Recover the amino acids of this structure.
């Protein structure tokens, strides 16, 4: 496989792809970005591990390490992959991923269903306000349908019967964690918890607003931060690779 891209953006739910596009278009101006999507079938068990192994099969023959990135559940898959196959990952960029990676909007949805005697539709309407801010009624209905579909498509381990925690730790490669100060799901406290596992080269950045899908509303501001991080470590990795090669010639 030739070197076709520098970055892989992971998406774990096809219905949410639309919210990644503005940022990916911006990032593609500076870096060679590929999008990898995981499509979970209705008869398939919800498992991050399946997505991780499929991604490894895709990258197994790729000759170079890559910048790996993702939002939400896509970020949780990227994190798991980076821990399991560190030699494949040059850097890791996580958007709206808490230090406890299972602390996503699905978990908040199921907690509300368990604690309150309200319908699925009522919880979805509340989730729209939390994730996107106040929206007009017709937009709220459309976004409720999107979130309802995401509950079916995403490999989230949560359900009405149980909530699951995932391992908390850092990674060996440089990592950037991005969030929004107005995100009630992955809030500032959940982001700051990452500091317990940060290395000197790791970076934490918060968008002033934008709620959970801040990268959709502010693609340029988010993109500038990510590109700066990638370019620094991309150039650093290329220099190290060149020095290593020259040492053996």
């Amino acid at each position: 496989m030739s070197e076709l891209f520098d970055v892989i953006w992971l998406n774990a739910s096809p219905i949410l792809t639309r919210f990644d596009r503005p940022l990916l278009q911006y990032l593609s101006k500076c870096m060679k970005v590929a999008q990898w999507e995981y499509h979970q079938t209705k008869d398939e068990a919800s498992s991050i591990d399946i997505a991780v192994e499929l991604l490894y099969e895709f990258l197994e023959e790729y000759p170079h390490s890559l910048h790996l990135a993702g939002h939400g559940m896509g970020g949780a898959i990227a994190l798991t992959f980076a821990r399991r196959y560190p030699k494949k990952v040059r850097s890791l960029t996580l958007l709206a991923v808490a230090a406890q990676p299972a602390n996503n909007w699905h978990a908040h949805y199921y907690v509300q269903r368990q604690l309150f005697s309200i319908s699925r539709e009522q919880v979805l309407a509340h989730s729209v306000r939390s994730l996107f801010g106040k929206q007009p009624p017709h937009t709220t209905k459309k976004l409720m349908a999107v979130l309802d579909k995401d509950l079916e498509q995403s490999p989230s381990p949560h359900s009405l019967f149980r909530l699951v925690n995932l391992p908390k730790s850092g990674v060996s490669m440089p990592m950037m964690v991005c969030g929004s100060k107005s995100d009630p799901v992955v809030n500032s406290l959940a982001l700051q918890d990452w500091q317990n596992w940060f290395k000197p080269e790791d970076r934490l950045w918060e968008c002033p607003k934008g709620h959970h899908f801040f990268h959709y509303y502010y693609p340029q501001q988010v993109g500038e931060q990510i590109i700066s991080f990638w370019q620094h470590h991309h150039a650093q990795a290329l220099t190290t690779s060149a020095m290593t090669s020259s040492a053996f010639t």
The chain has a mean pLDDT of 90.
